[in-house]
Design brief:
Strand content: 15-25%
Low-confidence stretches: none
Distance between the termini: 20 Å
Oligomer: single chain
Number of domains: 1
Order of helices and strands: HHEEH
Structural class: alpha+beta
C-alpha cells in the first residue's frame, strides 16, 4: 500500500504518515533510512486492522 493511499484512507496528509512511520508511531508499517533517503513499507492487512480498531 502506498503512502498516498494510506493518507487518503486516514484523511491525513502523506507527510503525516511518513513522519509517523519514521517515529514508529503506527503499528502497520516501517520507515527505513537508506543513505539519505527514506523508504516506507505499509502492510495492507495490518493497516486495515488498525483502521477497524480506530472506529
Amino acid at each position: 500500500m502506498s503512502i498516498k493511499e494510506a493518507a487518503e484512507k486516514m484523511k491525513v496528509s502523506p507527510q503525516f504518515i511518513r513522519v509517523g512511520l519514521q517515529r514508529g508511531q503506527f503499528p502497520f508499517g516501517v520507515a527505513i533510512k537508506l543513505s539519505s533517503k527514506w523508504t516506507y513499507y505499509i502492510n495492507p492487512k495490518q493497516f486495515n486492522e488498525y483502521m477497524r480498531e480506530e472506529r
